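Illustration 12: Endonuclease III.
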Amino acid sequence: MTRTPTGRPAGARRRMTLKEAERFITLLAEAHPNAESELDFVDDYTLLVAVALSAQATDASVNRATKGLFRDAPTPAAMVALGEEAVGTHIRTIGLWRTKARNVVALSQALLDRHGGQVPHDRAALEALPGVGRKTANVVMNVAFGDSTMAVDTHIFRIGNRTGLAPGKTPRAVEDQLVARIPAPMLRPAHHWLILHGRYVCKARRPECWRCPATEPCQYTGKVLIAP
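Figure caption equivalent — predicted structure in token form:
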């Protein structure tokens, strides 16, 4: 991790102004004009399952696991019929697979019991499903239903604090700041712009500032603008 001269981890000099925040997001938009989820899915249900499986796992690893899973169980009823053991066989290459297999079957049964097998367009109903928290609900509402939600994963949490875009001690604090500070017309796609930026440029161990399109408004004190 880059360090400041005092020995503390390098972070943001200060919180961005609203004008700087809009400029930062605009520059990311220009760099990723066609940004979208990198998870493979075919409908609202397979999106929900894929997002639930993606906790503490890469999208690439989830896509490899769900290729066969969605072939064998493309609907809630088929997933329940497949059963926890068989689901586990499909997803054992991703983290926490035993718990996730149990949750996928349980949330599929809950969809059948409570929502006629459909994914509900309602935050409280989504968060009431087994294995579905606020981040997963936000992704589903954003991608499936077009809502202007901000799902704060590890990448967005890091960017919010490192750059000064939306500093916060918790994911919810960062989420609330992002929702308040990003212009409303940009909020929905900003979820994807920020994730891709964190995944491929503003990386955890060594941010590749020399490839960043938004170094000017960024308040990170440890910028390295020349490639090593």
